[in-house]
Write a structure and sequence with these properties.
Helix 4 (60-77) crosses helix 5, helix 5 (85-100) runs antiparallel to helix 12 (308-316) and helix 6 (129-142) packs parallel to helix 7 (159-170). This protein folds into 2 domains: 10-100, Four Helix Bundle (Hemerythrin (Met), subunit A) (Up-down Bundle); 117-308, P-loop containing nucleotide triphosphate hydrolases (Rossmann fold). An 8-stranded mixed beta sheet has the order 3-2-4-1-5-6-7-8, with helices on both faces. The protein is α/β, with parallel strands linked by helices and 320 residues long. The chain is elongated. The chain has 12 helices and 8 strands. GO terms for molecular function: GTP binding; GTPase activity; signal recognition particle binding. It catalyses: GTP + H2O = GDP + phosphate + H(+). One of its GO terms (biological process) is SRP-dependent cotranslational protein targeting to membrane. Keywords: Cell membrane, Cytoplasm, GTP-binding, Hydrolase, Membrane, Nucleotide-binding, Receptor. Involved in targeting and insertion of nascent membrane proteins into the cytoplasmic membrane. Acts as a receptor for the complex formed by the signal recognition particle (SRP) and the ribosome-nascent chain (RNC).
C-alpha cells in the first residue's frame, strides 16, 4: 500500500520506525503464524487477530471495534483472502485514528497570541513528565520561540532540580521557589515572569500524585485559578503524559486524570523498547483526546509530533 502521508524528515521517520520495531515484530510475527496455511479470513483467523490486538495492548473495546469493522468488510466482499488482511487492518486502524484525532500538527507550532501560551503538564511520577517538558522546551526554542518553565512539582524529591537541569540543557529559564513550596505560588510567579519577559510559551510542571484524587483535583484547580488572575484564558493546554511501555496501566492513568482535570492533549512516552505500542490506538479511541506527542527514543528530537498517517505507515511498513 502506498504511504498515506509524508511530511516527516527522513531522520524522524527512521526514528519512528525504530521506536515501533518491537511492537511491529511482535504483532506481525503472531499474525503470520495465525494465517499460515489459510487462504481466507474466517472466524478462526478473526479470533486469533482479536487475541493479537489485545496482546499488543490495543484494549478490549477498541479491539472489538476493529474486529467488527473487518467482519463487516468480509461480509460485504464475501471473500477476503489472508493476503489482504494486512491492508484491511491498516486501513481500519488509520480510519479509527482519523475519527478520534481532532487536530494534525505539522511541527512544533503555537497559535498567535499577545500573551504567553500556557501549557500545564500533568501525569504520575515516573512516566517521563519532566523529561518530556525538557524536550518540548528544547524543540520549541529551536523553532525560535521564547520558552519559560515553571517548577510547580514541589512535592517530589529532586523534581525541581531535574527541571532546572533540563532548563540548562535546553537553554531556557526555570522559575522555581524551592521544594515544599505552594505549587500555585510557583505557577503564579512563573506566569508573572512569562508576561514580564514576553515569553511565547510557559510550560508548568505539576505534582504527579498527591494523597488522593480530591487533593490532586483541588491542587490543579488552585493552580488554574491562580494563573487566571494574570492570564484569564489560561491554561491553554493541559497535557497528560503517559508511559506507553506500561500498556493498560497508561489507560488506567488516563481515566484517573481525565476525571479530575480537563485534559486537552496527550503525550505518550517510551514507545521504543516496548511491544505495547498498540496502546496508542486504544487511548485515542477511548478518550477522544488528541494524542499530540509521542516519545520514540532518548534524544530530544525523538519526542515527535504524533501524526496518525506516519504512525500507521511505520507500524505496517514492512508488510505493505
Amino acid at each position: 500500500m502506498k504511504k498515506l502521508f509524508g511530511f516527516f524528515s527522513k531522520e524522524k521517520k527512521e526514528a519512528l520506525d525504530k521506536g515501533l520495531e518491537k511492537t511491529k515484530q511482535n504483532f506481525f510475527s503472531r499474525l503470520g503464524r495465525a494465517i499460515v496455511g489459510k487462504s481466507k479470513v474466517d472466524d478462526e483467523v478473526l479470533d486469533e487477530l482479536e487475541n493479537i490486538l489485545i496482546a499488543a495492548d490495543v484494549g478490549v473495546d477498541t479491539t472489538l471495534k476493529i474486529i467488527r469493522r473487518i467482519e463487516a468488510r468480509v461480509q460485504r466482499d464475501k471473500y477476503v483472502n489472508t493476503a489482504e488482511l494486512n491492508r484491511i487492518l491498516r486501513e481500519e486502524i488509520a480510519a479509527l485514528l482519523a475519527e478520534n484525532q481532532t487536530e494534525e500538527l505539522n511541527d512544533f507550532e503555537l497559535p498567535p497570541r499577545d500573551t504567553p501560551y500556557v501549557m500545564l503538564v500533568v501525569g504520575v511520577n515516573g512516566v517521563g513528565k519532566t523529561t518530556t517538558i525538557g524536550k518540548l522546551a528544547a524543540q520549541f526554542k529551536q523553532k525560535g520561540k521564547k520558552v519559560m518553565l515553571g517548577a510547580a512539582d514541589t512535592f517530589r524529591a529532586a523534581a525541581v532540580d531535574q527541571l532546572k537541569m533540563w532548563g540548562e540543557r535546553a537553554g531556557v529559564p526555570v522559575v522555581e521557589l524551592g521544594m515544599g513550596k505552594d505549587p500555585a505560588s510557583v505557577a503564579y510567579e512563573a506566569t508573572k515572569r512569562a508576561l514580564e519577559e514576553k515569553a511565547d510559551l510557559l510550560i508548568i510542571d505539576t505534582a504527579g500524585r498527591l494523597h488522593n484524587k480530591t487533593n490532586l483535583m483541588n491542587e490543579l484547580a488552585k493552580i488554574k485559578r491562580t494563573i487566571q488572575k494574570l492570564i484569564p484564558d489560561a491554561p491553554h493546554e493541559v497535557l497528560l503524559v503517559l508511559d506507553g511501555s506500561t500498556g493498560q496501566n497508561a489507560v488506567i492513568q488516563a481515566r484517573e486524570f481525565t476525571k479530575v482535570t480537563d485534559v486537552s492533549a496527550i503525550a505518550i512516552t517510551k514507545l521504543d523498547g516496548t511491544a505495547k505500542g498498540g496502546v496508542v490506538i486504544g487511548i485515542s479511541d477511548e478518550f477522544k483526546i488528541p494524542i499530540k506527542y509521542i516519545g520514540v527514543g532518548e534524544k530530544i528530537e525523538d519526542l515527535q509530533i504524533f501524526n496518525r498517517y506516519e504512525f500507521v505507515d511505520s507500524l505496517f511498513e514492512e508488510n505493505a
